[in-house]
Amino acid sequence: MATSVHPDLAEVPLTSVLAALADPLRLGIVRLLADGAERQCGELDTPVSKSTLSHHMKVLRMAGVIRARSEGTRCYAHLRREELDERFPGLLNAILNAQDHGATQVGLK
Fold it and tell me: Which end of the chain has fewer beta carbons closer than 10 Å to its terminal beta carbon, N or C?
């Protein structure tokens, strides 16, 4: 089983987080994970192939936005909300409450 690398948020610059969240699909994934529940990656209803979704999940993980774990052949992810709120107070709430409909535009449900 492969172990995912998760950066220490104290070492993640704000620009990395913002760059990861700038993509409408990745922002949509974050919105899907915003309820705090851990989700199987296959449950994320995205209009992209598995390999493209894997790439987007890696970008979010390397920016410190999500934490992912593998269990057998399945991948599970959850938002690092508490850690993000501690490191960048108010950032996630501002982004999640913004009236951007990019997630709808790329087909996320």
Answer: N
List the structure tokens of 2.
């492969």
Give the CA angle between residues 96, 70, 78 to the nearest 5°: 15
Determine contact, residues 70/1, Cβ cutoff 8 Å: yes
The pLDDT tens digits for 39-81 are 998 888 888 888 888 899 999 999 999 999 988 888 899 999 9
* 3-class secondary structure, 101: coil
At 21, the amino acid letter reads L
pTM of the model: 0.84
The kind and range of the H/E element at 15 are helix 14-21
Q: How far apart are CA 30 and CA 42, in angstroms?
A: 15
**What residue type is assigned to position 1 of the chain?**
M
| 80/45 Cα distance (integer angstroms) | 20
